[in-house]
Amino acid sequence: MFRRITILSFCLLFSIFLSAQQKQNDVLIMADTVKRKPINPLAPAKAAFYSAILPGLGQAYNKRYWKIPIVYGALGTGIYFFADNNKKYHRFRDAYKVRLAGGKDEFDGQYSTATLLNAQKTFQRNRDLSFLITVGIYVLNIVDANVDAHLLQFNVNDNLSLRPDYYPTDINYRHNVGLSLNYQF
């Protein structure tokens, strides 16, 4: 039993020693090879500005070219539904006005006057909703470019590490194994 504990302790101390030696070499190599570029705090604002001027331009600035067809597809869909609902709204509104004036409209005999009025209100509501959704997609395009530019500047390097740790507890001084998260400035 004592022999097993001795061998286990020796292996544990030897692995910690090797781990410490490895870390020093890594730091020396990392200091020589890693070049840090300065953070440009204006880049997110520039990406948002570009995206506000021309939708998708902020995504191109961030080099996220795959998002550009999504932006134009979403905006195109919103514009299509706005134009379609606007056309149908005006069609039913004009028919309703002609019917109130006593003339013959294109829906004569198909729909009642109340139905024309309800259809006109429905297409007006759908048109307004399509407009709001399209504006929301445009704003989401700007926000996406800004957030993506911020995330491009997010610093992920070896100064942030997660490693196992062996420590005694404060209450009963028994040794525990756990994980420690270290961040070096």
TrEMBL record:
Residues 41-185 form the DUF5683 domain. It comes from the Bacteria. The chain crosses the membrane at residues 65-83. Residues 1-20 form the signal peptide. Pfam families: DUF5683 (PF18935). Keywords: Membrane, Signal, Transmembrane, Transmembrane helix. InterPro entries: DUF5683 (IPR043738). Coiled coil: none annotated. This is DUF5683 domain-containing protein.
